Amino acid sequence: MQNNDIHTKAGILLHDANQRYTERRKRLIETLYNSGRPVSIYEILNLEPNLPQSSIYRNLDALEQSKVIDQITFKSGVFCELSESFLGHHHNMVCLSCDSVIDVELSTTDEKAIDRILDNASRMHNFVPTHHTLDIQGFCELCLSQLEEETASGDKKL
Q1: Which of 64, 59, 62, 65 is nearest to 44 (CA)?
Q2: Do 109 and 141 share a domain, yes or no?
Q3: 19 and 52 co-located in one domain
Q4: Within 10 Å of residue 152's Cβ, how many Cβ atoms?
Q5: pTM here?
């Protein structure tokens, strides 16, 4: 999706939620778009030092309520990314050591298999699902190799 398309779509979503598309909200969307991955609130504060912290939090909440962004809570904190309206359906792999987040798109076959499993579990509990999110937590390649080195030297255990 191109930059102009993102702003058009964001403007429509905000309008539909009776919200204005302010310059600060545009800057936050630009920051998320340019990062190309989920970013923490701390990273946003560093990337947008001229925006007041309270304004960032308030605008991120409005963007989430308007379905422009998703806020994802992990053990290490809250991360923000453009919503599936912009990125398409995907899942996240989250490193428990360095907080890196990798977006993962599954094949249609794999996604349908997950949907079937979740639909079966939902039926067992008389629950009607509307969508799902799947976050895979573990260790990225770099952190895993560091942990293995530390384990081999006796400094740390996995």
Answers
A1: 59
A2: yes
A3: yes
A4: 9
A5: 0.76
Which single residue is written with the structure tokens 């992990």?
74
Domain match, 125 and 64 both? no
Same domain, 95 and 84: no
Q: Smallest Cα–Cα separation from 49: which of 67, 27, 69, 71? A: 27
Strand order in the sheet with 69-74: 39-40, 77-82, 69-74
Strand arrangement of the beta sheet that strand 101-104 belongs to: 101-104, 91-95, 135-138
For residue 59, give every residue at least 6 positions away whose Cβ sits within 8 Å of its Cβ, in sequence order, or none. Answer: 22, 24, 25, 28
Range list of H helices, the chain: 3-16, 23-35, 41-47, 53-65, 84-87, 108-124, 141-152
Domain that holds residue 99: 89-158
Examine the domain organization and report whether 118 and 139 are in the same domain. yes
158 in the same domain as 130: yes
Could you list the pLDDT tens digit for every one of the 158 residues in the chain? 676 799 999 999 999 999 999 999 999 999 999 998 888 889 999 999 999 999 999 999 999 999 999 998 877 788 999 998 888 888 888 888 888 888 888 999 999 999 999 999 999 999 998 888 888 889 999 999 998 888 877 766 55
